[in-house]
Backbone:
């Protein structure tokens, strides 16, 4: 049901763009006004979210570790699993961000034959997640050719790598197939595993369908009904030089693609997708495990009046002596 | 709002903004040239004189979007099936399926025609991996 609502929502959005862009007067709205607004909301929204998180104090070190912390010199220290300094944190964070290391440890818990709990490998989510995120990054970088007049060699190289199978014309991009397959897998996983289905919300299905919609409309324009990409680049270059014009020759499917992307931009900082920034701000990942080397003072501690034993003894030394109690100083 | 760990947080924000706004500042102050594929080679002008109009194998709108599909089909037809005749869907004329003796005969300047859009969009067609690239001899004449 939740999946269906999300699917209908995305289809409706696509339909709005399709119908809207078919009206000549609306092309400026869908081609210029909405993308600008969406981009501003994305950038400002992300910064606001980051600042909001950064305003929460993290007084104590709470990294989740899976290795030996730095201790005595003859005990082997696990530098990445339990980093003791910034360098270790950077290494740990890089592996987390680039290769989803903690998800790699994902386990499947089952009750085995002998009624014991057994734990098995569960790498599919990790593999599909990694495939999805990396192909998304490749696609994003590839799209930079629409935003740079003299396309740099690095982007041409990535594009060449993506299309090096040389299938068909225009050349088939591997990441197009990978992103469609991985998003489909992520969706099937959500409805296929009862426990995952139970905890899945519209906020989980909607971004999947939205990204699927963006990918399908992009694939559609490249391999099926071609859109005039020269005009698309003219529009893109116009947008980034604040001198936008919407060429007549751009097909309606492009506006579906652009509108769904604009929705994604708006949705990004307001939803779980903001984990793009959040992963860097996870205290269980980004803190060094140095609680035993460094004193971390709680920033909201208020001054507590302390009366130490030394002061107590100074106050009552004579009386204590008189009562025969032992004292530290004579 | 009290921001903790200002150093890394602001560094992160700066990196995010630098990446997100890259197209804007990268293009700042540049004048953007639109591609302009020329269809005024001496051969095309000659053709126009004889036939009263410029025309390609298929209409312009079709060629714009689908020329790569057409050429790919041509290659498969010629190389795999030894089939060289292409009947235009638009006007029923028969064309020789050949890039060097067909397309490039009229569009005799690769630089002023093919490369205009291909370079604009960083498209690297692999035509010239096998075919011999035509020499840009027309430049001196025109």
Residues:
């Amino acid at each position: 049901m939740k999946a269906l609502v999300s699917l209908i929502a995305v289809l409706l959005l696509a339909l709005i763009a399709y119908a809207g862009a078919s009206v000549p007067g609306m092309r400026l709205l869908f081609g210029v006004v909405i993308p600008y607004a969406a981009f501003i909301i994305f950038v400002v929204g992300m910064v606001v979210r980051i600042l909001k998180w950064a305003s929460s104090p993290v007084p104590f070190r709470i990294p989740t570790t899976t290795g030996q912390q730095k201790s005595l010199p003859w005990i082997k220290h696990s530098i990445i699993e339990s980093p003791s300094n910034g360098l270790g944190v950077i290494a740990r964070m890089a592996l987390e961000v680039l290769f989803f290391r903690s998800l790699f440890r994902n386990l499947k818990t089952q009750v085995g034959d002998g009624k014991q709990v057994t734990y098995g490998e569960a790498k599919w989510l990790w593999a599909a997640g990694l495939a999805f995120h990396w192909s998304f990054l490749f696609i994003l970088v590839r799209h930079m050719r629409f935003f740079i007049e003299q396309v740099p060699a690095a982007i041409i190289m990535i594009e060449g790598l993506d299309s090096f199978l040389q299938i068909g014309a225009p050349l088939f991009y591997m990441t197009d197939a990978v992103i469609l397959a991985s998003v489909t897998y992520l969706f099937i996983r959500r409805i296929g595993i009862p426990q995952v289905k139970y905890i899945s919300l519209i906020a989980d299905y909607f971004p999947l369908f939205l990204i699927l919609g963006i990918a399908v409309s992009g694939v559609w324009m490249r391999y099926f009904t071609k859109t005039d990409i020269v005009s698309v680049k003219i529009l893109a270059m116009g947008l980034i030089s604040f001198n936008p014009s919407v060429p007549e020759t751009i097909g309606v499917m492009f506006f579906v693609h652009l509108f769904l992307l604009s929705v994604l931009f708006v949705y990004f900082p307001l939803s779980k997708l903001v984990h793009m920034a959040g992963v860097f701000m996870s205290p269980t990942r980004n803190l060094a495990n140095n609680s035993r080397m460094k004193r971390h003072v709680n920033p909201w501690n208020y001054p507590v009046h302390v009366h130490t034993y030394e002061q107590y003894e100074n106050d009552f030394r004579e009386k204590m002596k008189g009562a025969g109690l032992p004292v530290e100083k004579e | 709002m009290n921001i903790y760990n200002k150093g890394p947080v602001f560094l992160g924000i700066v990196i995010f903004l630098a990446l997100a706004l890259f197209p804007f500042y990268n293009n700042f102050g540049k004048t953007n040239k639109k591609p302009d594929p020329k269809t005024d080679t001496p051969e095309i002008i000659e053709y126009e004189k004889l036939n009263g109009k410029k025309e390609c194998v298929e209409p312009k709108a079709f060629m714009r979007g689908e020329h790569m599909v057409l050429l790919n089909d041509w290659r498969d037809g010629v190389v795999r099936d030894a089939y060289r005749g292409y009947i235009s869907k638009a006007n029923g004329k028969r064309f020789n399926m050949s890039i060097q003796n067909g397309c490039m005969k009229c569009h005799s300047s690769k630089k002023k025609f093919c490369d205009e859009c291909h370079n604009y969009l960083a498209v690297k067609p692999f035509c010239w991996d096998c075919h011999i690239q035509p020499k840009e001899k027309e430049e001196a004449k025109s």
Notes: The interface with chain A takes residues 1-6, 9, 12-13, 16-17, 20-24, 26-28, 30, 32-35, 64-66, 68-69, 71-72, 117, 120-126 of chain B (CB under 8 Å). The radius of gyration of chain B is 23 Å. The CA atoms of residues 87 and 94 of chain B lie 4 Å apart. Chain B has a mean pLDDT of 88.
